[in-house]
Write a structure and sequence with these properties.
Blueprint lengths: L4 E5 L4 H13 L4 E8 L2 E9 L15 E2 L3 H15 L26 H5 L14 H4 L2 H10 L16 H14 L3 H12 L3 E2 L4 H4 L6 E2 L18 H8 L13 H5 L8 E2 L1 H11 L12 H7 L4 E5 L4 E5 L4 E2 L12 E4 L5 E5 L4 E7 L1 E2 L6 H14 L1
Parallel strand pairs: 6-14
Antiparallel strand pairs: 1-3, 2-3, 2-13, 4-7, 5-7, 8-9, 10-11, 11-12, 12-13
Helix pairs in contact: 1-13, 2-6, 5-6
Length: 381
């Protein structure tokens, strides 16, 4: 079956189109889109393939898909905006705006520690169900009550799924708005598609996520696991659908707010947000002040992470480019998502980049996203 590919590349960037087409022909891509802006100008905007496993619905420019951890940087951005506004400080205790979070020895945990995965709550201890997952207040209350798994601030452990309820909880308690509602005001101002908690009309635009291998959907009981693997298992599977397993394409999942994991976006929406972050969208001030963004995108915590099982570098929501997680040029920053989705900005080059897809392969970096990024930078050289 011929793969439909549409869109455009600015003259001189044809290598990106070739890499995008090769992802379908050679690397197993099913449906995807890539968008690049340079100094606020749209220079690459490509869509291709199919929005469903049966290959009946072509991917369109406004197709939305779950971008997983790409959303971690975006929910962190909402907190950074509150810091800019003077509502809360990076080194203020979370409990200053969210008193319930002080429970079980967490009174001193700071906003900065939450943003760089040092808050000590990468999993919730109370047994939860998927019905709980659809309930924002239930999830944030259970997280606030959780006893830390390690001394906050002493190390980092990737808050795989709790990051969204932790950082989103700060947004909610500091602003009075849930993160999904607050994000809508941001994206509405710049016309970007990136959401938590989709409406019925937005759900109709969604591509189905296709897991490969399908064994990734195996149900796990984290309460039956002991030892070193218990914490990661609790973080991934309490509630059972916390990582989207078994629920990813359902209306309940798409309609809920799980900011670390269920942000739904188009490639253009991701690129527009990063362009707005670095202040290259005409007529719009940067979404975060340059000085605070510089602080947020420098290394804040480095070292071994037992959840990711490797040495990692965290900024404040954003990941600074590094040997293990490369984005663009030396000053670039962003966040990958499960299966390969990615958003990043390179302020030195004025680049804002978004890539989204529905065929989820293990981890986050892949030959697919790497080929697109490398072809872009070779063409810009």
């Amino acid at each position: 079956m011929d793969v439909p590919i549409s869109g455009f590349c600015r003259p001189g960037l044809d290598a990106v189109r070739e890499a995008f087409a090769a992802n379908f022909a050679e690397r197993g891509e099913v449906g995807a889109a890539v968008c690049v802006m340079v100094d606020g100008e749209l220079v690459v905007d490509l869509t291709g393939g199919w929005a469903d496993e049966g290959r009946t619905r072509p991917w369109r420019p406004d197709t939305l898909v779950d971008v997983y951890s790409v959303g971690k940087a975006i929910v962190a951005m909402l907190v950074l905006q509150l810091v800019d506004d003077g509502v809360i400080g990076l080194d203020d205790p979370i409990a200053a705006v969210w008193p319930e979070f002080a429970a079980a020895g967490k009174a001193g945990v700071t906003v900065r520690q939450a943003l760089c995965h040092q808050a000590g709550v990468p999993a919730i201890r109370e047994r939860l169900t998927n019905d709980d997952l659809w309930n924002w207040e239930r999830m944030t209350a259970a997280l606030a009550a959780t006893e830390p798994w390690f001394e906050p601030g002493s190390r980092h452990v990737y808050h795989t799924n709790t990051y969204g309820h932790l950082v989103g909880g700060i947004v909610h308690h500091a602003s009075g708005q849930r993160p999904g509602e607050r994000l809508r005001a941001v994206v509405g101002a710049i016309g970007a598609d990136f959401f938590w908690g989709l409406t019925a009309a937005e759900q109709a635009r969604c591509a189905d996520v296709i897991w490969a291998p399908s064994s990734n959907l195996t149900e796990v009981n984290p309460f039956a696991i002991e030892g070193d693997f218990q914490l990661p298992a609790m973080g991934y599977f309490n509630p059972p659908g916390y990582s989207s397993h078994g629920v990813v394409n359902t209306p309940e999942w798409r309609g809920a707010q799980v900011p670390s994991t269920n942000g739904h976006a188009s490639a253009r929406g991701v690129a527009q947000l990063y362009a707005a972050l670095i202040g290259t969208v005409p007529g719009h001030a940067p979404l975060v002040s340059p000085s605070l963004l510089a602080e947020a995108t420098r290394p804040q915590s480095e070292g071994f992470c037992p959840v990711l099982a490797e040495d990692v570098v965290f900024g404040l929501g954003f990941v600074p480019t590094n040997e293990r997680r490369r984005f663009g040029g030396p000053g670039s920053f962003g966040h990958f998502g499960t299966g390969g989705a990615v958003g990043f900005a390179d302020p030195d080059r004025g680049v804002a980049f978004g890539y989204v897809m529905n065929h989820v392969i293990p981890r986050w970096q892949s030959t697919r996203n790497r080929s697109l990024i490398d072809s872009l930078y070779a063409a810009l050289a």
